[in-house]
Amino acid sequence: MAVDFSRVSVYLVTDPTLSNGRTELEVARAAARGGIRLIQYRDKLAGKRLYLEKARALAALCRELGIDLLLNDHVDIASLVDCAGIHLGQEDLPTAEAKLLLGPTKIVGRSTHDLQQATVAIREGADYINIGPVFATNTKATPVRPVGLDMVREIARASTVPVTTMGGIGMDNAADVVRAGADRVAVVTAITQAPDISEAARKLVGLVESAKASRSA
């Protein structure tokens, strides 16, 4: 697998509209200083040409920083960029077709919103699944009903692949998500809108690691 999820506590998803005017490169560099080891480049507004240009620049920076990069939705662009793989939603390409385009060295992750979707995604070969939104969130144009902590518990117990959790997660509730069974959280605004991105990343990584340690104890 191209991504070592054992070293990922916080999975950062970028959004150019939610970064207080900072570029993806600025966000990624600062987040890496705070301990982020996995970034997803998500940009719903960029056209294909611009997305490719920005993805290549971000991939080069991530290689320099020693962190993994996933792209969002654009399987064709991920096949052209030196990234770790792709993250897909429920309405995107099927996993098998995405893997055919990407080849064996890149991973495919899938967003899921309930146990059935998670089970199907794993059966179809997803390398990791994301469950969410755990809590209410405003970062999606089409809201999905929050799945809650009980769904996190159920899927975390059942999954045979790494699980990420996303949606409304921040400093005040990340530990609750981890105590429910999640090994990592994915966030946008908790980091991208922070005045000090590095400090926010460092604090959130610390919260997740502490919650995992207390859970194990």
Q: How does this structure look, described?
A:
The protein is an alpha/beta fold and 217 residues long. It has one domain (5-216): Aldolase class I (TIM Barrel), CATH 3.20.20. Helix content is 41%, strand content 16%. An eight-stranded parallel beta barrel has the order 1-2-3-4-5-6-7-8, surrounded by six helices. Helix 2 links the parallel strand 2 and strand 3 (68-72). The longest helix has 20 residues, at 197-216. The protein is globular and about 45 Å long. The model has no long low-confidence stretch (mean pLDDT 95).
Key structural traits:
16% strand; 217 residues; 41% helix; 8 strands; TIM Barrel; alpha/beta; eight-stranded parallel barrel
CATH architecture verdict: Alpha-Beta Barrel
Q: Major sheet: size, sense and barrel closure? A: 8 strands, parallel, barrel
Compressed to H and E, one letter per element, the order equals EHEHEHEHEHEHEHEHH
CATH structural class: Alpha Beta
Q: What count of structural domains? A: 1
Structural class: alpha/beta
Number of strands: 8
Shape category: globular
Q: How much is the average pLDDT?
A: 95
Taking the alpha carbons of the first and last residues, their distance comes to 29 Å
The CATH topology is TIM Barrel
Ranges where pLDDT stays below 50 over 5 or more residues in a row are none
* Assigned CATH superfamily: Aldolase class I
Percent of residues in β-strands? 15-25%
Helices, by number, come to 9
What's the Cα radius of gyration? 16 Å
Give the spatial strand order of the biggest sheet.
1-2-3-4-5-6-7-8
Fraction of residues in helix:
40-55%
